[in-house]
Amino acid sequence: MHCSQQTNDVPCVDYTSLLDASIESLSSGLARRKFTSVDLVKAYLARIAEVQEDFHAVTEVNPDALSIAADLDLERLHGSLRGPLHGIPLLIKNVIATNDKMNNTAGSWALLGAKVPRDATVAKKLRDAGAILLGKSSLTQWANFRSDNSSNGWSSLGGQVYGPYFPRQDPWGSSSGSGVAATLGLASGCLGTETDGSITSPASSNNVVGIKPTVGLTSRYLVIPISEHQDTVGPMAKSVKDAAYILQAIVGPDPHDNYTSTIPHTPDYVKACKHSSLYGMRFGIPRNAISLALDSSTQPQIKALGQAIKVLRAAGATVIDNTNFTAADEFWNSKISARVLEADFVVNLQGYLTSLTHNPNDIHSLDQLRNFTRNSLLEEYPLRDTGVWDAALSGWNNTDPRFWPAYQQNLYYGDDGGLLGAMERFKLDAIIMPADFAAHWAATVGTPIVTVPLGFYPPGTPVVKDSWGLVESAPKIPFGISFMGRKFSEEKLISMAYAFEQRTKVRNTVQPYIVPKTELSDVVGK
Predict the structure, then answer these.
(1) Mean per-residue pLDDT of the chain
(2) Rounded distance between C-alpha atoms, residue 430 and residue 278, angstroms
(3) pLDDT of residue 1
């Protein structure tokens, strides 16, 4: 707790540290007029500035954030509340378009200054819910869909994002900045996107909760795409309940994204947060899928998984081992998943570029984007290649007759031959895996994942670096656990993840090695 100085008979007020503050605690403080949304924005902007050179988590801040906050404070003063996110500042990934003074670039100079006709649907929903769009979080450029030899968290516009638990920590990605910003309290929460791991992985490595929704639960309209079959937008936050509040605001049908037409109904995700939710649940562990990515550096995660199993069983759940994925080995060695994404990207990216109302570099296709990237010194080519784009442009796209059988095979790897098949055979409510092993198995079928903190690498862990010098494992680097389920089972997964989170409370057992110091007490009344 942080206390503002007592002046002129004004009593000292305790404020929850912004490193830990929940959306509910901030909403309560706003309701009781302990502080305003303008105060919150000032504090978060100062925190971003404090650590920007250390972590590069934010590409740009919203120049209108303070005036938007003032308007929302006025609405509150007049008794008008839009919902639980009213006046709450959030960061959104720099692929989610906003029709304002902010850019939407995927971290590339190619789209700097481009304009869109309106907000992305998820951005509009956040605004309608009263959230303040504080800025754009940094990412792996083009959502990690440009290079074969680049690093997690790097973009030409945003620089290299680092995780905050070890110097030069790999932040993973592609929603790297959202994970780092959420864990450091640079906003009350963030939006990320996932095609295959881009929420799950940075949530795990940055000690936060990440919800990868079912494909079609949240609109992708005016979100820079990779694949219409796998892209999804979801929250990253300090707790399951905070993530549930954000998810609640962004779900729902959108005529601009026909995948959202299959949503069965919208539950109350916040009410799903119940301590008793693990009782009677059946969980499976696909050891064969885990073993495919296992190495000496990931052994601490397997040990922590063993402890998690004990927690689940103590809470009244059944945990069944070796609920294996029958096509795991075939999928692991297959190139079909990459081919499907490449085929989608060529067409889906062109669709986004066509929607722009101002296209400053006159880029209308992937081939033109590749030419720009290869000829711009700012894009660090060929140090960071265009290998993914080269492969996409050398093959067929999703309008080709060859696409459909490849896509059906890809679905099989996640359905009968994978996660959904195992769930049916063993009558499971969810699959659990260490988060760093989980994302691929849900990606092909577009099923949801809720990831929560599980543990940290212990003292004495050897420091392992990638070819760019980013630290992948070392003492105190976090990792998470993923709860994986059927399509549109977010309510159930959130309830399980919340109950697990409340029994373990892992997140605050290790602190980042650098944290911003600005608190509400530094700005209220100043």
Answers:
(1) 97
(2) 11
(3) 56
Catalytic residue among 27, 42, 93, 521: 93
Active site residue 198: yes
Q: Is 34 a catalytic residue?
A: no
57 HSE (CA, 13 A, CB side): 36
How many other C-beta atoms are found inside a 10 Å radius of the C-beta of residue 507?
20
Whole-prediction pTM: 0.97
- Cα(200)–Cα(484) distance, integer angstroms: 11
Peptide bond into 239 cis (omega under 30): no
Query: Which pairs with CB-CB distance under 8 Å and at least 24 residues apart come from 155-158?
Result: 155/59, 155/94, 155/106, 155/107, 155/108, 156/107, 156/108, 156/109, 156/376, 156/378, 156/379, 156/380, 157/59, 157/94, 157/105, 157/107, 157/108, 157/109, 157/112, 158/56, 158/59, 158/94, 158/107
Confirm if 163 and 467 have CB atoms less than 8 A apart.
no
Residue with tokens 């994404």: 341
Give the three-class secondary structure for 297.
Answer: helix
| Among 45, 437, 518, 494, residue whose Cα is nearest residue 235 | 494
Query: Of 27, 174, 176, 205, which residue is the catalytic one?
Result: 174
Query: How far does Cα 489 stand from its chain's mean position?
Result: 18
Residue 25: active-site member: no
Q: Which helix (H) or strand (E) element contains residue 137? A: strand 132-137
So what's the pLDDT on residue 8?
A: 45
Q: How many CB atoms lie within 10 A of CB 458?
A: 11
Q: Quickly count: other Cβ atoms within 10 Å of residue 65's Cβ.
A: 22
Q: How far apart are CA 193 and CA 212, in angstroms?
A: 8
Bridge partners (DSSP) listed for residue 3: 14
